[in-house]
Amino acid sequence: MRRYLIVDDNLDFAENLAEILRDLGDEVAIATGGAEALALARGGRFDAVLTDMRMPLMGGAELVHELRRLDPGLAAMVITAHAGDDALEAARREGLLAVLPKPVPVAQLLDLMAVARRDGLVVIVEDDRKFSDNLCEVLRGRGFAAVTAGSVLETERLGPIRPFAALVDLRVPGGPDGEAMRRLSLRFPNLPMIVMSGVHGQPPEGGQGFFRKPFDTAALLDAVERLHAARPRLGGAP
What are phi and psi of 136, to 5 degrees? Predict the structure, then answer.
């Protein structure tokens, strides 16, 4: 049985979704605003939160930030009718499992909630945007959220996150080969890294796996699964 937190000022939507999830055997708590959601999170541990982005007093981005301070391992999804919202970009930098449109595709949402992983955030450093997006998608299918950077500099601009692993291209703009790995190791000491590369030569030291492009995506996912299984548990709500 899984436990979910649904936060939406549209109570009818929240109750309808909660009824579907409860019929599937899960527990659901509902909050109609940010303050109520934070109170629920202080009192219990959830597998995932789904929140609307635009709500009175506290929006979804601020709520995700505050929830992560209480429980860094919480998987987060948002729903929004405003894909270009600046606040949405702020939320993305903290690592979201999914951003879903309104009206909500309920079948897709249920699939995502069923696989959402606690402590399941991965950093992807890759300058090929299409390839990075593809990695995000295959990780999402396993319930892993991702934050991305396309250069050495962008690794410095990641939000206040708690990743359990990183997938890092050996050569990205902004520094010599391996510089992105060095920057990540300074910011996240002991962060396990899987190195990806299309460059010929010896694998770098310090990685927990090396995949030469093009590689078997299933094998990469298996390596990520092993790192997730071996991760130290993060602190959070009891």
Answer: -60, -40
Q: Is 115 helix (H, G, I), strand (E, B) or coil?
A: helix
Instruction: Give me 51's structure tokens.
Output: 């929140």
Query: What digits encode the pLDDT tens for the residues 82-132?
Result: 766 667 777 788 889 999 998 899 999 999 999 999 999 999 999 999 999
16/86: higher pLDDT: 16
The tokens 């995949």 sit on which residue? 211
Dihedral through CA 155, CA 159, CA 160, CA 162, nearest 10?
-60
Q: Which domains does the chain have, with CATH numbers?
A: 3-115 (3.40.50.2300), 121-229 (3.40.50.2300)
pTM as predicted? 0.89
